[in-house]
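re: the backbone from monday

yeah here it is again, tokenized this time
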């Protein structure tokens, strides 16, 4: 976890992306410098190569703070997943608990 003047800590909750595993290094953590907390659920679209090609804020998010939402979405965009064969993109979610 982070402390002091560094960005606040963030825990990652459930990751839902059927049959896919997160790439080397794990999920990127959101970076933010605001005194607020909340759960941000980011809906992600991942291509067969494992790249996140789309993100949006899921309605399960419980904070309206734009800094927290942006930090979570930016982190989700940097996530990488294992490669799969096939031509279809997959949709799932990443949950971040920002405290």
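seq for it, each position gets an aa:
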């Amino acid at each position: 976890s982070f402390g002091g003047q560094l960005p606040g800590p963030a825990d990652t909750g459930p990751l839902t992306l059927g049959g896919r595993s997160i790439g080397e290094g794990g999920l990127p953590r959101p970076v933010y410098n605001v005194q607020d907390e909340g759960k941000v659920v980011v809906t992600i679209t991942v291509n067969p190569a494992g790249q996140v090609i789309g993100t949006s804020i899921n309605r399960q998010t419980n904070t309206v703070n734009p800094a927290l939402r942006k930090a979570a979405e930016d982190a989700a965009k940097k996530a990488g997943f294992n490669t799969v064969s096939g031509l279809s993109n997959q949709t799932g979610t990443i949950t971040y608990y920002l405290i």
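The mean pLDDT is 86. The beta strands are 10-16, 38-46, 52-57, 90-98.
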